[in-house]
């Protein structure tokens, strides 16, 4: 008689336990990030962050609504006060300080200089192109060079 080889039952592979704590941690992080994004969007839509949208939003932000021009004037810096952008001045122009010869050569080469602090320009003297600092940056264009 021929004996058939006996096969031993194979042991079943043990299922590895799912890494549930890690999964829960990732879900919590995703929820926190999503909530932060939603709150950021909501916060950015508040009237105080958009004073240009109308008179009530302008006044809530502490600005002065100019009806004839339909703009909001938030800053009330007068001529001679320090500034880094024309939006901080009543005149709308922030005049740059006297530039050194090194700074002038940097600008002449087409580069910008940032971090300068200027002074608010007098309202009555604005005629034509006026040198200015725009968002803290002085460039060839902001100095009326063509």
Would you give an account of this structure?
The chain has 146 residues and is an alpha+beta fold. It folds into two domains: 23-74, no CATH class; 75-146, no CATH class. Helix content is 27%, strand content 12%. It is built from three helices and seven strands; from the N terminus they run ααββββαβββ. It has helices at residues 20-44, 55-60, 101-108, and strands at residues 64-66, 71-73, 82-83, 94-95, 113-114, 118-120, 137-138. It is elongated and about 115 Å long. The mean pLDDT is 78.
Main β-sheet: number of strands, strand sense, barrel status?
3 strands, antiparallel
The amount of helix comes to: 25-40%
* Shape estimate: elongated
Q: What would the average pLDDT be, to the nearest integer?
A: 78
Count of structural domains: 2
Give the strand tally.
7
Identify low-pLDDT runs: none
Q: Taking strands numbered 1, 2, ... along the chain, how are they ordered across the largest sheet?
A: 3-6-4
The Rg value, from CA coordinates, equals 32 Å
H/E element sequence = HHEEEEHEEE
How would you briefly describe this protein structure?
With 146 residues, this protein is of the alpha+beta class. It has helices spanning 20-44, 55-60, 101-108; strands spanning 64-66, 71-73, 82-83, 94-95, 113-114, 118-120, 137-138.
């Amino acid at each position: 008689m021929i004996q058939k080889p006996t096969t031993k039952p194979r042991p079943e592979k043990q299922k590895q336990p799912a890494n549930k704590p890690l999964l829960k941690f990732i879900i919590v992080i995703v929820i926190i990030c999503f909530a932060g994004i939603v709150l950021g969007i909501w916060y950015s839509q508040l009237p105080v962050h958009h004073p240009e949208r109308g008179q009530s939003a302008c006044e809530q932000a502490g600005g002065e609504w100019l009806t004839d021009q339909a703009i909001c004037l938030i800053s009330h810096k007068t001529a001679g006060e320090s500034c880094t952008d024309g939006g901080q001045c009543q005149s709308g122009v922030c005049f740059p300080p006297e530039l050194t010869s090194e700074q002038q050569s940097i600008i002449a080469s087409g580069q910008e200089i940032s971090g300068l602090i200027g002074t608010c320009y007098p309202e009555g003297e604005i005629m034509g192109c006026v040198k200015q600092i725009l968002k803290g940056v002085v460039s060839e264009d902001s100095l009326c060079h063509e």
